[in-house]
Amino acid sequence: METILTINNLTKHYGAVKAVNDLSFTIEKGNVYGILGPNGSGKSTTLGMVLNVVNPTRGNFHWFDGKNSTHDALKKVGAIIERPNFYPYMTAKQNLALVCKIKDVPTDRIEEKLDVVGLLERKDSKFSTFSLGMKQRLAIASALLNNPEILILDEPTNGLDPQGIHQIREIIKKIAQDGTTILLASHLLDEVEKVCSHVVILRKGVKLYSGRVDAMNASQGFFELKCEQTQLLVDYLNNHNDFGEVKVEGDLITGYLVSPLAAHALNSELHSKDIALTHLVKRKESLEEQFLQLTNNLN
Ligand code: ADP
Ligand code: MG
User: Fold this and answer.
1) Where does the pLDDT of residue 298 fall: very low under 50, low under 70, confident under 90, or very high at 90 and above?
2) In what order do the strands lie in the sheet with 277-283?
3) Torsion sign (Cα): 262, 266, 267, 269
4) Atom 26 of ligand 1, nearest CA residue
5) Spatial strand order in the sheet of 17-28
6) Rg over CA atoms, the chain
7) Residue 27, strand partner residues
């Protein structure tokens, strides 16, 4: 696997505000990553740091194999982290030609990129005549002009109507299918589920989860258990069809469910095996629910 971005213990404090706290994750080529979290959870700050516009307080990151400077590596990155801003009186094509000049890339790929975002027919329309969705699509075309290895998008569907949202998501999927790695920040679980293969969930700058999106949804919850005969219990759980991974930390045993099992059912089962629990808590680890709770009470 080819690594695109490696982040180690990245931290950003603004005075007393810990915008991003000890964040580590890696981005592998070909996947679509979502950074998911409610407003103020540190998504934009994280993107700002890896794009060299925000200075980390602590920690580090490197692009690709880490052999080039961040400045050089960023030439292989396409990013939209602000509202699309182009010259209103210039056409889509003229605006992109200007971007080509600034980025020092050939102009002969402009039409191909306009086609990717569904704006080829509007190439000669002035930017000022575009809807917000079209402006956002033009920004994506612009970010693709340097044929980036990775495309970074911050809340790409914010403020768009349902049709505009759908178009942007389809475009992102198409770009990913063509082999471009994607990193997008979003506060919408539904967006990440629809578009992303992998997710990093942030809350108040702290990583709550990272991994595959499908693994996140498959969660049946888990039990936290303690008893005097730890090994007996661990062996029992390891042979139990309803349990997957079983973790032991000191005297605390955490058993992750792979199929539904009620707390009272487990309790009476163990009792009949003469395993007496001193502690039993079932937690519903459904990150979907957790995340919805987080987003319902913003901040
Ligand atoms: P998100 O993109 O997830 O909404 P941000 O990264 O924008 O979150 O913000 C994370 C936290 O850092 C918030 O509490 C925000 O108020 C704070 N923050 C972001 N940028 C600045 C800044 N330039 N100065 C002070 N605080 C900031
Ligand atoms: Mg943001």
Assistant:
1) very low
2) 243-249, 252-257, 222-227, 277-283
3) positive
4) 14
5) 17-28, 3-14, 58-63
6) 23
7) 5
- How remote is the CA of residue 294 from the centroid of ligand 1, in Å? 17
Q: In the CATH hierarchy, which top-level class contains the domain 3-216?
A: alpha beta
Q: Where are the domains of the chain?
A: 3-216, 222-283
Section 50-69 average pLDDT: 96
Residue with the nearest Cα to atom 25 of ligand 1? 14
Cβ-contact 202, 36 below 8 angstroms: yes
Residue 40 in contact with ligand 1 by CB distance below 6 A? yes
Burial class (CB in 10 A: 0-12, 13-18, 19+), 14: exposed
Looking at CATH, the fold of the domain delimited by 222-283 is given as: Alpha-Beta Plaits (3.30.70)
Residues in the chain: 299
In short, whether 19's Cβ falls inside 6 Å of ligand 1 is yes
Confidence of residue 299 (pLDDT cuts 50, 70, 90): very low
What pTM was estimated for this model as a whole?
Answer: 0.79
Distance 98 CA to ligand 1 centre (A): 31
Q: Counting atoms of ligand 1 from 1, which one is nearest the CA of 46?
A: 6
The DSSP symbol for 76 reads G
Give the CA-trace dihedral at 12, 13, 19, 21, to 10 degrees: 60
Nearest Cα residue to 255 out of 246, 263, 266, 264? 246
Considering only CA atoms, which of 7, 43, 20 is closest in space to residue 192? 43
Q: Is the model more confident about 57 or about 208? A: 57
Average pLDDT over residues 269-292: 82
One-letter amino acid for residue 58 of the chain: R
Looking at every residue in the chain, the average pLDDT score rounds to 93
Task: Please check the confidence at residue 265 and state whether its pLDDT lies above 90.
Answer: yes
| pLDDT at res. 83 | 83
pLDDT at 42 over 50: yes
Q: What is the spatial distance between Cα 27 and Cα 150, in angstroms, rounded to a whole number?
A: 10
Q: Is the CB of 44 under 6 A from ligand 1?
A: yes
